[in-house]
């Protein structure tokens, strides 16, 4: 069970908090980074929060090294997620890539 990082910008949320969770909702996400240092992931998530997005962090281990992802979403379909990629690039100057996550434990 890892931490989950999710960021959506449906409406600016100045009081939004970076959240960490054991699982993550099903859907399409935009990954804006993957960091070996969780502090770097948290800093990016806070930057996204300041821009009006809601951020979550997700731990994953693609190899021998544990990483922390910074994600935005979920969106229900790929087209909405692609629009979110553009919105994020315009808002924070970062181009993310799409991930289709099936949910916790899958």
Task: Explain what the structure shows.
The chain has 106 residues and is α+β, with helices and mostly antiparallel strands. Helix content is 26%, strand content 28%. The protein is built from 2 helices and 5 strands, in the order ββαββαβ. It has helices spanning 38-50, 78-92, and strands at residues 19-20, 27-35, 56-60, 67-75, 97-101. A 5-stranded mixed beta sheet has the order 1-3-4-2-5. A hairpin with a 6-residue loop joins strand 3 and strand 4 (67-75). The longest helix has 15 residues, at 78-92. The radius of gyration is 12 Å and the shape is globular. The termini are close together. The model is unreliable at 1-7 and 10-17 (pLDDT under 50).
Describe, in short, the structure shown.
By secondary structure, the protein is α+β, with helices and mostly antiparallel strands. The chain is 26% helix and 28% strand. Strand 3 (56-60) and strand 4 form a beta hairpin.
- The number of helical elements comes to 2
Question: Helix coverage percent of residues?
Answer: 25-40%
Regions with pLDDT < 50 over 5+ consecutive residues? Answer: 1-7, 10-17
The arrangement of helices and strands along the chain is: EEHEEHE
From the alpha-carbon coordinates, what is the Rg to the nearest angstrom? 12 Å
The secondary structure category is alpha+beta
Shape from CA axes? globular
Q: Provide the spatial order of strands within the biggest beta sheet.
A: 1-3-4-2-5
């Amino acid at each position: 069970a890892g931490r989950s990082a999710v960021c959506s910008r449906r409406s600016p949320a100045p009081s939004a908090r970076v959240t960490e969770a054991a699982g993550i909702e099903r859907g399409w996400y935009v990954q804006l980074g993957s960091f070996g240092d969780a502090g770097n992931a948290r800093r990016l998530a806070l930057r996204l929060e300041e821009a009006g997005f809601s951020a979550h962090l997700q731990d994953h281990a693609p190899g021998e090294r544990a990483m922390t992802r910074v994600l935005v979403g979920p969106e229900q379909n790929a087209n909405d997620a692609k629009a979110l990629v553009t919105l994020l690039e315009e808002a924070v100057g970062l181009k993310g890539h799409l991930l289709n996550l099936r949910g916790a434990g899958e």
